[in-house]
Design brief:
Blueprint (H helix, E strand, L loop, with lengths): L3 H25 L15 H9 L5 H6 L8 E6 L2 E3 L3 E12 L10 E10 L4 E10 L6 E15 L12 E19 L2 E17 L10 H8 L7 E13 L10 E11 L9 E13 L7 E13 L29 E12 L6 E13 L12 E13 L4 E10 L4 E6 L5
Antiparallel strand pairs: 1-3, 2-3, 3-4, 4-5, 5-6, 6-7, 7-8, 8-9, 9-10, 10-11, 11-12, 12-13, 13-14, 14-15, 15-16, 16-17
Helix pairs in contact: 1-2
Length: about 425
């Protein structure tokens, strides 16, 4: 199934309807200037109302009270695609809201979905970042329960595809952290981590499971090959000055978290991991319709030996490494960087585009690969259709290419970062 022709058709239809809506708005409000209106000014819902001619009268809309704690949500059929899953179908939801006064409280976001995939996977996830009133608490979570599969490869950023084996498994991933503010925009916190990979078995490939990179690594380090578990705690510090957590136009997000996994808490090994995530967004125009976004990510095993499926990997966060399948490169230490240009194709902000470049390097003590010895670059472009102008939620479609013929198509409800 090819989804991108459908997405192109949707963009074309939105462009045509947006032109009609803009002309109608000019007739209705001939004295209004574009500069006097907030940006973006139109989303898919506005076009639908124009098409159905069910708009509120201008006077009524202008006089309607604005609730500062109003919730903005998008619930849609979960049509998506990634190289590691193929086409996915299900339901996706995105919720944005303020728990208090928007002047003193960050925007809270929640995104989740339940999908079945072309590769016979059942995938579910819930991610949230919730600020209480006046930012007195911040609670973040990344939780997934999947019946899935993944191609496994040798370790390091120069690993080839020879002998790649598909592995099926069930996974429970829980990462939840509660933060307290120490100053404006700066938080410190602690939380719990749980990663369980159960019923690990041979998948759909010709390679022998016993000879796979996963099985060889597990034997070498004393892990069972049918199930592996990591249980521990985390400590973190976070800076967030973004104007919008879903689709930022300006500001910074920087975080560092130290994860300690303990054999005594039911895990298979004691090991430690440090993650660093830095993002910044720079507007190129006053409205923010054109901007630059930069992302630096580092994921480092700093002590002990991690199970194979818990090692840092490209795409393990379901966002990084466009142009590559999840798990294509894996190792003890990963460093990643990405730059993206984000622009609007229409004054209203209804349809937009992105162009991106990324690269990463991964080390492995087992294979002797060191950080910065080799790189895996990626590049691509994407299109955006604005689903909700207040939360700035886009339907996003991206095409990415990597080295050695790697490529991917990605469709979802969120920006990569």
């Amino acid at each position: 199934m090819r989804l991108y022709p459908l997405f192109i058709a949707l963009c074309t239809a939105c462009a045509a309807l947006d032109g009609v809506a803009a002309r109608a708005q000019d007739r209705d409000h001939p004295d209004e200037t574009a500069a006097a209106q907030p940006w973006p000014t139109a989303d898919v819902t506005d076009l639908w109302h124009k098409f159905r001619q069910k708009d509120e009268p201008a006077e009524e809309a202008a006089s309607a009270p604005r609730d500062p704690q109003r919730r903005y949500h998008v619930v849609a059929p979960g049509l998506g695609a990634r190289p590691s899953t193929g086409v996915t179908l299900g339901v996706n939801g995105n919720l944005a809201f303020h728990q208090g006064d928007p002047a003193t409280t960050h925007l809270s976001t929640m995104i989740g979905g339940l999908r079945v995939s072309q590769k016979k996977q059942l995938l579910s996830n819930v991610r949230f970042s919730v600020f209480t009133a006046d930012d007195r608490w911040l609670v973040q979570g990344d939780n997934r329960v999947n019946w899935t599969s993944l191609d496994t490869f040798d370790l390091g950023s120069d690993a080839g595809t020879d002998g790649a084996a598909n592995v099926k498994f069930n996974v429970v991933h829980l990462n939840d952290t509660a933060y307290l503010p120490v100053r404006a925009g700066v938080f410190v916190g602690a939380g719990l981590d749980l990663d369980v990979h159960a019923n690990v078995r041979a998948g759909d490939s010709d390679a022998a499971f016993d000879q796979s990179a996963y099985s060889a690594y597990s034997r070498r380090h004393g892990f069972a090959s049918d199930a592996q578990r990591s249980t521990g705690t985390n400590l973190g510090v976070l800076l967030d000055t973004r104007d919008n957590a879903i689709n930022a136009e300006r500001g910074w997000l920087a975080s560092a978290a130290y994860h300690t996994f303990f054999k005594g808490l039911g895990g298979d090994a004691t090991w430690q991991e440090l993650t660093i995530d830095v993002r910044t967004f720079r507007p190129l125009t006053r409205s923010g319709s054109h901007r630059l976004a930069f992302w630096f990510l580092s994921d480092l095993v700093t002590g002990g030996v991690a199970p194979y499926l818990d090692l840092p990997t490209i795409g393990g966060d379901i966002r990084s490494g466009r142009g590559y399948a999840e798990g294509r490169y894996r190792g003890e230490r990963l460093v990643y960087g990405e730059a993206e240009y984000r622009g609007s194709l229409m004054p209203s902000g209804l349809v937009g585009f992105v162009a991106f470049l990324n690269t990463f390097t991964i080390s492995s003590a087992d294979t002797g690969t060191k950080l910065f010895d080799s790189y895996a670059p990626g590049a691509g472009f994407g299109l955006r259709v604005l689903l909700n102008k207040r939360s700035r939620t886009n339907l996003a479609a991206d095409w990415g290419w990597g080295k050695e013929g790697s490529r991917g198509f990605y469709l979802g409800l969120q920006e990569a970062f």
